Amino acid sequence: MDASRDGFGVALGGGGARGWCHVGVLRALEANGRSPGGAAGCSMGALVGAAWAAGKLEALEVWARGLTRAQVLSYVDLGLGQGGIVAGRAVWRILDHLEVPERIEDLDRPLVLLATDMETGREIWIADGDLRAAVRASIAIPGVFRPYRIEGRWLLDGGLTNPVPVSAVRALGFRRILGVNPNARGAQPLWTRPKGGGLWPHLAAPAVVARLPEALRGMFSPGAEEGPDDTAAPDYLQVISASIDMLTGYLCATRLAADPPDALLAAELGHIGVLELDRAAEAIDAGRALVEAGAAMLQRLDD
Question: Catalytic: which of 43, 138, 167, 241?
């Protein structure tokens, strides 16, 4: 994967629903005549990267913008056991809907997908083989999606070890690299109490909870512990999301400092929950705005 390539490559970070911003970034780059030659992605960056490398990005945008809360819930295959509360079979449904190739090596453009080996903690680069399985492994957010087994290894979210995979793009042979980080924080707190809405109350609907084993139903009752000021304790997904943001935020800063891209687009989308996939339009538009605002910086990719 080290042959020299013309143009630039793009490193697509994770972030769950925040990662929809990659669609806006890539679409805006193409509209400006500055399309990448290849990509590496982890978590949502793996899903968007797969669609882009297959020439199906426009179809993915149309599908994502049309997502409703009810449709998102229909993709959530809840169940207790095997290391997560969501099985993640929706990856196959989404990629089948887009009609992407079966194998990574059959994509139109070079792509590397990242996952994390649960046994060793090492990052795993997947550049060939079953595309759907690789994307499924890359999105395995701990505590939410079950780990996925490929070639004898249980794999977790690639963002745990390489949140914006610049090094994988460099290994593809690109001298110039654009990084896209959907998890930039700025002055935003890691967690604030939601003011209504969000996905969790809908997951806690009786019709959804009834599908769960009894031992798991208590997790879907946020607000059971209330203090004297009538403030509920953070719920399960809020704790998982904030914890991952803490760890990957530090790791991302460290890795980008050690191996910086030529240009970096950083989206502050912390107000979007990782599973609020129906907020795709908001994140996609934010990605387009990043490209417009970063026009001068992006000229570095042309040198």
Answer: 43
